Amino acid sequence: MLVDSHCHLHMLDFKALASDLDSIISLAMEQDVKQMLCVGTNLQDLPKILRIAEHYDQIFASVGLHPNEEVETEPTAEQLVSLASSSYKIIAIGETGLDYYRTEGKDNHQWQQQRFANHIIAALTCRKPLIVHTRQARKDTLAILKSERAGEIGGVLHCFTEDWQTAKEALENNFYISF
Ligand SMILES: [Zn+2]
């Protein structure tokens, strides 16, 4: 059995795919992908994600704000915890992390780091693993994972494109790596 730990079923363009969600999920099942985690990147998509996750037994959901997502009011760790408890289908916090690639020239590293730390606090509070995105930010990602004690809950570093040294440090801190 395969588990897709990172998909965005709520973002699929069914018109372009000339398909629908039922067919896509059946295709995945035929290929032995028996469970999927539909990952949130912002909070306004959550109702849509939950509608999907609550409709299909094999689909689960996560709550989080992608590092490049711009919002007017930043959610607190408490707000993330309360959203994460709003459905039995929510099994993880994320995606969260740091992305300095798409923000080059913009001075927003500090709020990205604060947002990332808030997600780790939320994950530790509600005991749900983290889905971490990191791009051109491996040093700061590892530093924050360690300083906020993310290893106590663990999770996955998704879409991993860093070096073996970074992978080793993540693995030592109770994280999986996904390619
Ligand atoms: Zn993603």
Descriptive notes:
This protein has seven helices and seven strands, in the order βααβαβαβαβαβαβ. It is an alpha/beta fold. The protein has a single domain, classed as Metal-dependent hydrolases (TIM Barrel, Alpha-Beta Barrel), CATH 3.20.20.140. It has a seven-stranded parallel sheet. The structure holds zinc ion. The site of zinc ion has 4 residues, from loops.
The helix-strand sequence is EHHEHEHEHEHEHE
Say what oligomer this is.
Answer: single chain
The structure class reads alpha/beta
CATH fold topology: TIM Barrel
What is the level 1 CATH name? Alpha Beta
- In spatial order, strands of the major sheet run 1-2-3-4-5-6-7
The pLDDT mean sits at: 95
Helix residue percentage: 25-40%
Number of DSSP helical runs: 7
